[in-house]
Amino acid sequence: MADESKDEKDNDLEAGDAPSGAGGKGIMMVMVGLIVVVETAMVLFMVPSAEQVSAIAEANLIKSIEETEQNAEELVDDENERQEFPLGMFGEVFSPYDTEKTYMIEIDLYGLVRKKDLDKMKEEFEKKGGRIRHQIRQKIRACSIVELNENNHAVLQRRILAGCNHLLEEDLLLQIGIKSYRPIEQ
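^ that's the sequence the OP posted. Answer follows.
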């Protein structure tokens, strides 16, 4: 009988008591559905909308433009920075037209040039240095007693500036400065 009950159990298992694939398929379908729902939720809540993407892009663009403008302003400021260019030391003996006395002037001059124009000025001064120095000497000799007064250097500086810039291809000199000045009456 033991054999019969064993045979009956085997027949029962074959007949339909054995676990069918339907339960496993159901669990698998639920898992796939759950994954699809989770992924859809992630896409909806984690991926930014078109408006959000455009707002982020616009903010980045504005920031980039502001940085570029600031860098450009700094570059322009740097290019327009004024630097001294030495024009030389001059010692001139002359007699002003409004007096019979003879004077000697020792004057050390420099010109203010934009940083971006400094190389051009060096080239021009190498080519035309003699003419520029001659022009400066002429302007010094053309001074009157009043113009030689230390309180009145502005007239002399303007004359030298105009004469030098006239010789240069461009107006590279912005201003003429005096490092040292010493008039001596002889």
